[in-house]
Amino acid sequence: MMLLLILTAFVAGLSFSLGLIQSGMLVPAPVLGFLDVTGAWSPGLAVVMATAIAVAAPAYFWVRYKHKTLLKHPSGVPRRRPPDVRLVVGSVVFGVGWGLSGLWPGSGLVLAGSGNMGAICFVLAMMAAMHVAFKTELYMLRRQQKRRTGKKQ
């Protein structure tokens, strides 16, 4: 079963990467063209996103209904929750990074794998930020737990 999971992850990653390459979404120009709504707007990214949603939606709804993946693992589909400050701030920060670089995590990883130095720097910065975010969240959770246990005593 573990080999099947690894093979499935490999095929999914390969499909994702080949799709990015084929659609031309690895380079920043189409992304920046999509974000340029007041200038030479390009709908290419919207077409890629709409197509991806159309392909993924049936599988998503099936998994959501069954609560398991095709390989019988728990789905991990998150419960619906209202937007909070953390989501909004994170989305803004993500958007700023996307707008400045024209890269997003998927394209950055694929480009870094090709040896592109700009993408390698992007991925290293992304990994550093994720590490800092993880450590900060861990610190905040521990601090919160200490406050809870301190109040009970």
Structural category: mainly alpha
Approximately how much helix is present in the residues?
A: over 70%
**Total beta strand runs:** 0
Rg:
19 Å
Dominant shape: globular
Q: Enumerate how many helices there are, as a single number.
A: 6
Describe the structure.
By secondary structure, this protein is mainly alpha-helical. It folds into two domains: 1-80, no CATH class; 83-153. It has helices spanning 2-23, 28-35, 44-66, 85-101, 105-113, 117-152. The longest helix has 36 residues, at 117-152. The relative contact order is 0.08.
Summarize the structure.
The chain is mainly α.
Secondary-structure blueprint:
Elements (H helix, E strand, L loop, with lengths): L1 H22 L4 H8 L8 H23 L18 H17 L3 H9 L3 H36 L1
Helix pairs in contact: 5-6
Provide key terms for this protein.
75% helix; 2 domains; mainly alpha; 153 residues; single chain; 6 helices; 0% strand
